[in-house]
Structure formats: C-alpha cells, structure tokens
Design a protein that fits this description.
Bound molecules: glutamic acid
CATH class of the largest domain: Alpha Beta
Radius of gyration: 21 Å
Order of helices and strands: EEHHEEEHEHEHHEHEEHEHEEHEHHHH
Shape: globular
Number of domains: 2
Structural class: alpha/beta
CATH topology of the largest domain: Rossmann fold
Number of helices: 14
CATH architecture of the largest domain: 3-Layer(aba) Sandwich
Strand order of the largest sheet: 11-10-9-8-12-13-14
Oligomer: single chain
Largest sheet: 7 strands, mixed
Distance between the termini: 33 Å
Number of strands: 14
Helix content: 40-55%
Length: 437
C-alpha cells in the first residue's frame, strides 16, 4: 500500500489511499504544488479530507428481505464555504474513491470562483438492480444517516452518477420532514417544481461544449491545428447519460458530426454522423442503446480509439489508462466525467501534443448552475433559463481563460494549470483564515 508523501515527510494514509481515483487526484495535486511552489504546509492539508462519515443504510426490499448498504459522505475542504458535491450510486463506490471525488470538488469550486468547498457522497450499490421504491427507501434512509453533517449552510449534495433530480427531491423531503418545514437549500439539482433551477439538468453537458468551443478558439489563436466546431468536426462521446447525451445533442445542433456515442451496452457509430435526436428518443424509450440498429455497433474500446477531432469521456473515471492510451487518436480530449484519464495516460497524451480539457474545468457547468440554484433558493427569486445559461457561459469563459493563462505562464499541462488555478485561491483563503487553534 502506498502512502501520501507530504511536505515534511510521509503521512501514512492507509485510510484514504486505496483507490486509483484518490491516488491520481493526489498525484495531480503534487504536480501542481511543485510547479507553483506551493507552501508544503498547505499541500499537506489539501492531500487529505477534513472529515468523512461512513454509514450503514438498511432498507426493506420489495421481496420483504432487509439489505444493508454502505454509504459515505466526505467533506474535503470547507475553507471557501459549505461543502458541495454529488451523491453517487455505484457498485464500486468506496471511501477512498469518494474522498478523491470530494478533493476534485474542492479544486473545481475554487477554480470557477464559487463560495463553496468540496464534498462528495456515495452508496455502494448497483442502482440498476433496485426498484423505484427501493431507490426511494435507500435515499431517504441515507439522508437520515448523514443528516447531522449536511444542510444549506454546511454541505449541499447534488446528483452524480446513478442519481438524478428525483433522488434530490426525496433527499430534500426527508431532511425537511425531520425539521418540520421545507428546506429546499439542502440540495441542488432538484426538480424545478420544488425549487430547482431552469437549465440545471443540461448544465454539465452544456459546459462541456462551451469548453470545447473555447479550446478550439484557443488552439486556432495559437496557430495550432484546431477544429472549427462545425460540420467539418468529428466527435466521439463515451457515455450517453446526463452529461454525454446533452453534450452530444448540443454538438449535433452546432452542426458537428457526432460519429459515435456509447453506454454500458456498447457504442453506435456512423462515419457521416449519428442522428442524435433519434438515438436520444431510442434511449428514452429503452433505457440503453442495446438493440439500436440505425447505426453500426462498436465496443467502448473501439469508440475511444476512433480517429476524431474531439473525444469526450463523459461516463466514469479511469477509462483512458496507460493500457489503452496508445490507441487514442483524438486531438482534443474533453473530460466530461470526473477523472476519466489517469495521470500516466494524461502525460502520454500531452507528450504527443493532444489538448486536454481537465475535468475540474470541463464538467464544472453542473456545480456552477447548482450554485445558481442555491442562490436563487436562498433569495426566493428565480431566473429565466436564458439568464442561467448566460451567467454559466460567462463563468465558464472566465475559468477557461484563467486556466490557459496559467498554462501559458508556467508552460505546463492543462490539468496542472487547472489545479494551480484552484489551489492558488485556496492557498490565499487558508492563509487568511489561519490554522485553528
Ligand atoms: N456531481 C456533479 C460534479 O461532480 C455536480 C456537483 C454539484 O452540483 O454539487 O460536479
């Protein structure tokens, strides 16, 4: 088992350090810390989460049996404000992975300038094996179990892999029932009818597309080969869910040839571009792309290896690794998911001149509109979707500019630049607040 090397020696981190996702997040932080010459005392604190809660979540299943699931909520850093981050339902979720994801949320919120810290939650469960009633029971009991560390001023969950706005509605209702009045600010990503924000569902995918457009413009301005993000541009999207499906549709509407998309059942491919609205209709009816026969079937591995201008891994972490990175040919890689490209793979891609849009920037649209939702709820004053989208575009543009400016001045990779942007703001805030006691 490895340990986290810190400024003044080595901290035995057997508790946190067991997942690739966490190890990758720490490696990326270390790289940023060394490039920006971060005070080792600050790095030491950022390498481990502030607090974690592990809970057992018992539910009565439809067949009358009781099953107990393991749940987590990790708060990585709350210097800038309340914790913020999604709740994941996935069969491989564990404490270390949730801690790594919480760390990424800290950097993401800081980088895009939100007054929020980083947190994450999860339940180790295969969501496809649960009925709707079992989902509800699981979410409600989990909320009760973590109730003491969440709240509109403390830590505000949101959807993540395997959860959606309905889960947030149950969470908000459970938290509110326990206090006796409606408290919509405890979660974001809620349905609009109970205080959600217009544009929240589409925000992550939309943000992915904004960053792809900025990347193309930035590369063109540097005199590098750059796609035009029009009918001459080919795109492949790994993951056709809450993030990938929206990004695919937006890019299709911009005229790009989205030649491949995929989900757990595998991928669909058409070299002239897929009919994305048609594929979306199919998935809404059938839940997966299984059986879709209007295009060629390909595997997820084949999709990642396509000769395209833009590849957006929007599903889950660890899909491009040192094992398959040599097959990846895309020029721009947009990390729509959290941690889809491992540190080794990232280095190999940057060495061959690929342009990476790092997760903490690329998929930040979700948490940005979550922040807008929280603010709208606190003020009881709601914005039009046009206003939400315009403000999202502005925040994303500023964040993109901040990252490329750092990339240019330090002459480093985009991932390192994004982390430097996030860590620099935290560094200043942590110094100003000082170390208690
Ligand atoms: N789960 C999303 C993320 O990883 C959104 C988090 C949020 O809105 O709080 O960024």
């Amino acid at each position: 088992m490895s340990s986290v090397t810190t400024g003044k020696g080595s901290l035995s981190s057997h508790l946190w350090d067991t997942s690739d996702l966490y190890r990758n997040a720490v490696m990326q932080l270390s790289e940023a810390a060394s490039v920006m010459k971060l005070d080792p005392n600050i790095a030491e604190r950022l390498k481990v989460p502030k607090r974690a809660l592990i809970v057992s979540v018992p539910i009565r299943c439809d067949d009358g049996t009781i099953r107990v699931f393991e749940g987590y909520r990790v708060q990585h850093n709350m210097t800038l404000g309340p914790g913020k981050g999604g709740i994941r339902f996935h069969h491989e979720v564990n404490l270390s992975e949730v801690a790594g994801l919480a760390m990424l949320m800290t950097f993401k919120c800081s980088l895009v300038g939100l007054p929020l810290g980083g947190a994450k939650g999860g339940i180790r469960v295969d969501p496809s094996q649960l009925s709707r009633q079992e989902h509800q029971a699981l979410m409600r009991r989990y909320t009760t179990e973590i109730n003491m560390i969440i709240g509109p001023d403390k830590d505000i969950p949101a959807p993540d892999v395997g959860t959606d706005s309905q889960h947030m509605a149950w969470m908000m209702d459970t938290y509110s029932q326990e206090r006796g009045f409606a408290i919509p600010g405890v979660v974001t990503g809620k349905p609009v009818e109970i205080g959600g924000s217009l544009g929240r569902n589409e925000s992550t995918g939309r943000g992915v597309v904004y960053t792809i457009q900025h990347a193309a413009k930035y590369l063109a301005a540097k005199g590098k080969p750059a796609p035009k993000i029009d009918s001459s541009t080919t795109v492949a999207i790994h993951g056709f869910g809450k993030v990938g499906a929206v990004a695919a549709l937006e890019l299709y509407q911009l005229g790009c040839k989205v030649v491949a998309v995929s989900d757990v059942s595998g991928g669909i491919y058409n070299k002239n571009g897929l009919n994305i609205p048609h594929a979306l209709e199919y998935i809404n009816r059938n839940r997966t792309l299984e059986g879709y026969n209007e295009a060629e079937r390909i595997s997820n591995e084949e999709l990642l290896a396509l000769q395209v201008d833009v590849l957006a891994p929007c599903a889950i972490d660890g899909v491009i690794t040192e094992k398959n990175v040599h097959t990846v040919k895309a020029q721009i890689l947009a990390e729509g998911a959290n941690g889809p490209i491992t540190t080794e793979a990232l280095k190999a891609l940057e060495d061959r001149g690929a342009f990476i849009i790092p997760d903490v920037l690329c998929n930040a649209g979700g948490v940005i509109v979550s922040y807008f939702e929280w603010v709208q709820g606190l003020q009881n004053f709601f914005w039009s979707e046009r206003e939400v989208n315009a403000k999202l575009a502005e925040v994303m543009e500023n964040a993109f500019k901040k990252v490329v400016d750092i990339r240019d001045s330090y002459n480093c990779g985009m991932k390192t630049a994004a982390l430097i942007a996030g860590v620099d703001r935290l560094d200043k805030a942590m110094r100003l607040r000082g170390l208690f006691p």
